[in-house]
Design a protein that fits this description.
The chain is an alpha/beta fold. It contains 17 helices and 23 strands. The protein folds into three domains: about 10-85 and about 115-175 and about 300-370, FAD/NAD(P)-binding domain (3-Layer(bba) Sandwich); about 185-295, FAD/NAD(P)-binding domain (3-Layer(bba) Sandwich), CATH 3.50.50; about 380-490, FAD/NAD-linked reductase, C-terminal dimerisation domain (Enolase-like, domain 1, 2-Layer Sandwich).
Length: about 500
């Protein structure tokens, strides 16, 4: 039987979650012969690999040391989007007067314990899809325990030895904790612990303004926390389009988030009034007090304890496992997928890398990870979504581009929705309508970007997008307007002159 595991708070919903994804009464099966595939890690990449391979008739073993469902279910996408939804509801109520719905703002309050309870209930409800029992029913041998390689073809778990033809490492990543004087002694939160809160922190410091930091900073500010967001670079969301990041920064500030750029945290200590955080901003040292500190300064791959050296698998502590374009490790019988090896640390990336691994590992396929067209979205309000190349990436490849921008302030549905804070920006190869990349800032940018992704995947250019009929009024009409912009560039002075002469003659 597996060791009992407790998730705080130990209410009925977290107990239900544990029962599904780390059952305390689980008995690991006895290995029976050689496996076609042994998968280490039951996050998105591991689950998709195991389910897909078993569905094709492969003999599959799946090993998880902690919680099946991985980061996405337990400490990432699912809980964060649940509380983001509550924060958006709060924001909508506070803006209701502007839409003619009279609300006494003084009487509006967030019931934070209820928000978190709702999240835990939804997470528990969803967890059945990732449960140990479900995967057992799919024909997968599920093992709960620590996995380590004994050699290049045997994995040990729970004192059992699993002989494999092929293996997949899908152990994901965890929050990277920076070396800051006094931080560990003072205490801090990460995405792995913040969803266990039952009381709203009056003052919250967020270290790191990447996607997680920005999403949670905005969420907790809308709940009523006094939030300070500390970013070492001159821009929040430093990987994103600068214009897009500036829109998000302005919105965060409107929501009450205090943003410190070009700032590094040098020391943390505990005082009678809270946790004192010392900040160095371009040589100027200041400090402030917070009740909780959230670390969101990046991710670190989970490579510890796997005994990868024995398996002939090359890795490093910063970037994870080294793979080729076919997702093979330096031991070509062993593959990797998801956050453990990918620079694109998204659930959907892990999903599609897993599909590549199934074909390549079981059927000698030659699908390449580099061929994936990966969109992504940061779920602030408004959202930022992106797919393809940024201008600086195109420049690095000596590709000349032309950029078309459609502001939402000129899109009827955005005006009607009072959601004009955003744009659609599309980059095409100069002289053509071939789409190379796009960034969208909108309330539902994550949904809108899919149309661009489909166009890029199918080879559809802006000319064709202009001919796609969109329902009116929708915010997606901004994409059609981008197509119209491109078509207008094709109307050269010479062609306009010819049209004019023809129409004059034909009157």
């Amino acid at each position: 039987m597996t060791e009992s595991l407790q998730i705080d708070p130990p209410d009925e919903f977290n107990q239900q979650l544990v029962k599904q994804v780390h059952p305390p009464d689980w008995i690991n099966p006895e290995p029976d012969g050689r496996y076609n595939l042994v998968v280490i890690g039951a996050g998105t990449a591991g689950l998709v690999t195991a389910a897909g391979a078993a569905g094709l008739g492969a003999k599959v073993a799946l090993i998880e040391r902690h919680l099946m469902g991985g980061d996405c279910l337990n400490t990432g996408c699912v809980p964060s989007k649940a509380i983001i939804r509550s924060s958006r509801a709060m924001h909508a109520v506070m803006q209701a007067n502007e839409l003619g719905v009279l609300v006494d703002r003084k009487s509006v309050a967030v019931n934070f314990p209820q928000v978190m309870e709702r999240m835990r209930k939804l997470r528990a409800d969803i967890s059945k899809h990732d449960s140990a029992q479900r995967f057992k029913d799919l024909g997968v041998d599920v093992f709960i325990g620590e996995a380590s390689f004994l050699n290049q073809s045997i994995i040990q778990v729970d004192q059992r030895q699993l002989d494999f033809k092929k293996a997949v490492i899908a152990t994901g990543a965890r929050a990277a904790v920076p070396e800051i004087e006094g931080l560990k002694k003072t205490g801090f939160l990460t995405n792995e612990t913040i969803f266990s809160l039952t009381a709203l922190p009056p003052r919250l410091a967020v270290l790191g303004a990447g996607p997680i930091g920005c999403e949670l900073a905005q969420t907790f500010a809308r709940f009523g926390s006094e939030v300070t967001l500390i970013q070492s670079k001159p821009q929040i969301l430093p990987r994103e389009d600068r214009d897009a990041a500036q829109i998000i920064q302005r919105q965060l500030e409107q929501d009450g988030v205090k943003i410190l750029l070009n700032a590094s945290t040098t020391q943390v200590s505990r005082t009678e009034t809270g946790k004192k955080i010392q900040i160095n901003t371009q040589g100027k040292v200041t400090d402030f007090i917070a009740d909780e500190i959230l670390i969101s300064t990046g991710r670190a791959p989970n490579v510890q304890g796997l005994n990868l050296e024995q398996a002939g698998v090359k890795y490093d502590e910063r970037n994870g496992i080294v793979v080729n374009d076919f997702l093979q490790t330096t031991n070509h019988a062993i593959y990797a997928a998801g956050d453990i090896c990918s620079r694109y640390q998204f659930t959907h990336t892990a999903d599609f890398q897993a599909r590549i691994v199934i074909g390549n590992a079981l059927f000698k396929g030659r699908s390449k990870s580099s061929q994936l067209q990966i969109p992504w979205c940061t779920y602030t309000d408004p959202e930022i979504a992106h797919v393809g190349l940024y201008p600086h990436e195109a420049a690095a490849k000596n590709i000349r581009i032309q950029t078309f921008i459609q502001e939402l302030k000129d899109v009827d549905r955005a005006i009607l929705d009072a959601e004009t804070n955003g744009f659609v920006k599309v980059h095409v190869k100069q002289g053509t309508d071939k789409i190379l990349g796009a960034t969208i800032v909108a309330s539902h940018a994550g949904d809108l970007i899919s149309e661009i992704s489909v166009a890029m995947k199918s080879g559809m250019g802006l000319k064709q997008l202009a001919s796609v009929i969109h329902p009116y009024p929708t915010q997606a009409d901004a994409i059609r307007k981008i197509g119209d912009q491109y078509n207008r560039t094709r109307l050269s002075p010479l062609i306009k002159s010819i049209f004019n002469k023809w129409l004059t003659w034909s009157r």
